[in-house]
Amino acid sequence: MTQITRPDGRAQDALRPVRITRQYTRYAEGSVLIECGETKVICTASVEEKVPGFLRDSGQGWLTAEYGMLPRATHTRGDREAARGKQSGRTQEIQRLIGRSLRAVFDLEKFGPRTIQIDCDVIQADGGTRCASITGAFVAAHDAVSKLIADGKLEASPIRAHVAAVSVGLYQGQPVLDLDYVEDSACDTDMNVIMTSEGGFVEIQGTAEGAPFTRAQSNVLLDLADAGIRQLIDAQKRALGV
Amino acid sequence: MTQITRPDGRAQDALRPVRITRQYTRYAEGSVLIECGETKVICTASVEEKVPGFLRDSGQGWLTAEYGMLPRATHTRGDREAARGKQSGRTQEIQRLIGRSLRAVFDLEKFGPRTIQIDCDVIQADGGTRCASITGAFVAAHDAVSKLIADGKLEASPIRAHVAAVSVGLYQGQPVLDLDYVEDSACDTDMNVIMTSEGGFVEIQGTAEGAPFTRAQSNVLLDLADAGIRQLIDAQKRALGV
Amino acid sequence: MTQITRPDGRAQDALRPVRITRQYTRYAEGSVLIECGETKVICTASVEEKVPGFLRDSGQGWLTAEYGMLPRATHTRGDREAARGKQSGRTQEIQRLIGRSLRAVFDLEKFGPRTIQIDCDVIQADGGTRCASITGAFVAAHDAVSKLIADGKLEASPIRAHVAAVSVGLYQGQPVLDLDYVEDSACDTDMNVIMTSEGGFVEIQGTAEGAPFTRAQSNVLLDLADAGIRQLIDAQKRALGV
Amino acid sequence: MTQITRPDGRAQDALRPVRITRQYTRYAEGSVLIECGETKVICTASVEEKVPGFLRDSGQGWLTAEYGMLPRATHTRGDREAARGKQSGRTQEIQRLIGRSLRAVFDLEKFGPRTIQIDCDVIQADGGTRCASITGAFVAAHDAVSKLIADGKLEASPIRAHVAAVSVGLYQGQPVLDLDYVEDSACDTDMNVIMTSEGGFVEIQGTAEGAPFTRAQSNVLLDLADAGIRQLIDAQKRALGV
Amino acid sequence: MTQITRPDGRAQDALRPVRITRQYTRYAEGSVLIECGETKVICTASVEEKVPGFLRDSGQGWLTAEYGMLPRATHTRGDREAARGKQSGRTQEIQRLIGRSLRAVFDLEKFGPRTIQIDCDVIQADGGTRCASITGAFVAAHDAVSKLIADGKLEASPIRAHVAAVSVGLYQGQPVLDLDYVEDSACDTDMNVIMTSEGGFVEIQGTAEGAPFTRAQSNVLLDLADAGIRQLIDAQKRALGV
Amino acid sequence: MTQITRPDGRAQDALRPVRITRQYTRYAEGSVLIECGETKVICTASVEEKVPGFLRDSGQGWLTAEYGMLPRATHTRGDREAARGKQSGRTQEIQRLIGRSLRAVFDLEKFGPRTIQIDCDVIQADGGTRCASITGAFVAAHDAVSKLIADGKLEASPIRAHVAAVSVGLYQGQPVLDLDYVEDSACDTDMNVIMTSEGGFVEIQGTAEGAPFTRAQSNVLLDLADAGIRQLIDAQKRALGV
């Protein structure tokens, strides 16, 4: 890689400092504050002993997610979606992605007829909120599952692997890992990558904001993401003490 | 007063521990985390250089508030209002109250054609969220005003006095200050009292949940509230260093 | 009290003329037109032999209320809430208050698994619509209960006491009873007081529109309200012939 | 016609008693209570000195209408449309019809850049509410125009003719005029007819609820309607004193 | 009739060319493209083995309809109703009319506890879309019924007669059949007529856009419509091969 | 590749037959029916001589897209989004993708202060509707631009390259091109790939429905997509005669 200077001085392949605080709020079965640099998201996992209609009598469980952002999580205040009366397309896209990503590592048939409801609420946004949400939500869901096992409601964990997410992109023509808001606003290509601890891809979403990108660029970005996700999964493991 | 034992062992006239953290998030002109025992609310004050339509060309400023609760701020998960597509009556009632209370100590004619938008988002709820929101929002608004003065956009502060709020109620027949969730759910009478640092009432909202209450009881409750609010205003002053 | 001249020449402690017409419309189990001066509200009580979900199988009954205003009940036409697609915060606040106030004098456990649905629709508004709604709705609910007893569906009345409401306020610095629209728009402090025939408070909602108010002022206002509510309850009794 | 007995004993060609009360509420420029038997509708006409966007700068005026029904105007309580968050298809169909019917007798080019907003709110429904709304709304609109002329804002009336509406139908195989709710629910064919004082049709809406109807039946019904509308226009004229 | 020249050169009593294509899409039980000149509507009939709540346990079936228009079916693009979040009054009026018209020829008691859901989606609009929808929807419903019979789910057809619709109007003072968009925009009186193959009226909706119309004019228009509908029913029969 | 038998007998690297019909409807500036096997989408491009608020006074143009599906485009009827009152998350995600993909090949600075509004309406769905929408919408947008040039409103085309989309996936463990509904429902990994005629990626969206996928699998899928998109772009060129 050609050397560029990133706005916050990081190396191109460096994550922002990650901090994962468990039991952040007291009522949820799993409650995590994840901080990726200045991006801060509260992720809770709530267990409900019921499943949505389309799974009734299937014996199978479910996991779903909602996402929100405090109006002043951002540089300029955004509308409160509850006041406006609907969630934006962006919000719905993100919450569908979070749910899909976590379900990829859950064996829902072994979870019994219950639902894990993930809530990811961004209290400060500096880029990468959907990725931080996924990485944090996994830890919250893990805690919720551990509680079910500890309470004798579940025998074995339905979690097959860790899952985490990171963004990569081409900034000033160069591949960089874990873009902050300044980089994200100025990058040519932005890619969100979601992988499991077993190394497979759960989701790749790459978008050319400016010029189209090539296969070679895509592969360099995926290499960066792969390395970043390994570190994020390590951070999850340290937080969980596993 | 007859002596009763409160669920958390507090004296009847004792507030829960109050903690006010300024500059809690980084983008808002004023950003406060207020903790009243286990109740935790993020209060931000955003300055917008415009006023709503009904004040156009009046020269006067405005202050308004919105309120929300993370779905899992509570014992059992509540619906996300943004997903349901509307704010509940309770939410609207509270955000109207917050706005009215703060406007009571603001000289909006001296504020210029700008708006302070307050956002109070409850991240953990253990009773008294509307009162904590008002007490915390005052500090956030104060910071936003100080920033306008420091930036040379405002000459003098439009803030005439401090304002704070506390709940009082009759629990097991006895008057108590600053009810937590357990007390609030079981109390006979619940009163939210909002006062200024000059000692006047901005708002009294007393509701008999069970048996109606008498004038004498009302006066005892107002005495308790008065003493509690003085302490809350002291906490605001300590936090602000004034 | 210092003597002031009220816009309509009333004494400071005088109610507007109250007129309560029962059986105003023909289908509702209770149907009342209440006129407080120029404020006119149709209050109906409808009995439904079911309860909301949260009371299912509790054996207990329920009472709830909705409130509306014809678009041209006011000086200038307001939006029709049905056309706009949502009820305002003010509407929701008022209908919650009406329901709470009536439930305070109802022994819902003795009411059986049925619901009284109150509808208060303002056809002409000259201040005090929420208070007139409560005072009128009580009479409508009383008629609905009498009908249930007459029809042999209920043995004894679940109504424990009368309930009525009145506004008081500081107008030109002086305490006045039962504010009309002109006074309400110009007053410093506005207080809605709801009491039962046994003299206790069900709800006190006092708001400083301008300068904060003192305990002494609050007590003078509550005295005025107390006397006014006695007269309103007398009017209810005369209307009901009890 | 074969002789049948109508539920309320009326002759087949008899209207229900019509009563038109002007100045029913005090703020609207025109305010009418129209009673057709037990059907009672408050019709107000509000003048606003502006026109909708599609007429801006056209010099032309506008007239539009909204319609509502109090929840307990009917035998069993209906949903409040404001609470449900949308107007039903029936409501929208009726309010479009009211507006169209009144515009048919208004020369909007002579009305100047202002709008008459009609509101028809049914306080008691016993069939024929849309027809009563049109007949009453005409009187309210007439009063609003007279006020504009009296205030010197308008030189000449833009009203070209009276307009009124009535329902006719086939009940037990026989043509009847002005159906009440019982007849309306049981009739085979239901026709709403709207005519001007000059005798032309503004709108004919005939619907076969059961068996299709013939041209001959249609012509008998239109004869009945024609006679009924003449009487309704007489009632309008008597009410207006013209 | 006086001779006028219609914009597309048709005789006053001439329909536009009608083309009915069955099995237009592959999944619906009945799927028809109807083209009336440049007006093109896709009509599908879907069979669902359930009935709405108000018919539960009645043994009876149901038929209902929805209507939509692609945003660019018209000269200038209209809002997408799904994006705007509600259907217009016009849309609701039309879909209620379609459902009512088809139910008029269906013996729903003989249909069993199932629902035919009609969808009429206009892909190109040149006037007369509601009439084309009804005429086409009948064919789609007929196909759906034939499939039920072929599948052994229904013994005999619940369809009592054909139903079709056409518009007539006064254009340049003269009666014309089957108005296109240019004529419809400029006509004085517009009438939608819906008849069965047995010659009776199911619905007549006549509206004076300009001057009121007379009984004589109405009868001439109904004659025109009658002749047009016979031709449309012939077209239905040819398409169905019956 | 291992040989598998696809449900419709295609080779693994074979597209379904593509048919692009221009000028499918008559009013839109560009109107295309695209058929990819049994998937059929009407794509229109409407030109509006205005831009959204955030581009006002920028001199720049805009392109945006909306997407819908007729209720019975699918095997079982889906809700009509206009009737339900909101667009699903899936719909919003797709329409955002269509807009982003087309903007990637438009030089909006050279387009002047106007907007191309794309509408993609699926009339029959057999998998791959979002990809067919993008491929077809490009042709509609191209026609709209050509019309602007022909009308002298635009000097040069702002279109920099063709853009087309295709889905690829792992079906029964093997990579296949252009999945139909049966394959899409059963596949392990599903990838939507959007490329320009210059060979770069505009968007890659890969999702593991079952087991995570590897880099090697991803590269095989991208090869398949690349070849498929070249054929789709050829089809666009043939249709456009360029």
UniProtKB/TrEMBL annotation, chains A, B, C, D, E, F:
Q: Catalysed reaction(s)?
A: tRNA(n+1) + phosphate = tRNA(n) + a ribonucleoside 5'-diphosphate
Q: Does the keyword tRNA-binding apply?
A: yes
Q: Which domain of life is it from?
A: Bacteria
UniProt keyword annotations, A-Z: Nucleotidyltransferase, RNA-binding, rRNA processing, Transferase, tRNA processing, tRNA-binding
Q: Could you tell me which residue ranges the Exoribonuclease phosphorolytic domain spans?
A: 15-144, 163-225
Q: Which Gene3D superfamilies match?
A: GHMP Kinase, N-terminal domain
InterPro entries with a match to the protein in the record: ExoRNase_PH_dom1 (IPR001247), ExoRNase_PH_dom2 (IPR015847), ExoRNase_PH_dom2_sf (IPR036345), PNPase/RNase_PH_dom_sf (IPR027408), Ribosomal_Su5_D2-typ_SF (IPR020568), RNase_PH (IPR050080), RNase_PH_bac-type (IPR002381), RNase_PH_CS (IPR018336)
Please give the Gene Ontology molecular function terms for this protein: 3'-5'-RNA exonuclease activity; tRNA binding; tRNA nucleotidyltransferase activity
Free-text function comment from the UniProt entry:
Phosphorolytic 3'-5' exoribonuclease that plays an important role in tRNA 3'-end maturation. Removes nucleotide residues following the 3'-CCA terminus of tRNAs; can also add nucleotides to the ends of RNA molecules by using nucleoside diphosphates as substrates, but this may not be physiologically important. Probably plays a role in initiation of 16S rRNA degradation (leading to ribosome degradation) during starvation.
Q: How does it assemble?
A: Homohexameric ring arranged as a trimer of dimers.
Alphabetized NCBIfam families for the sequence: RNasePH (TIGR01966)
Q: What is this protein called?
A: Ribonuclease PH
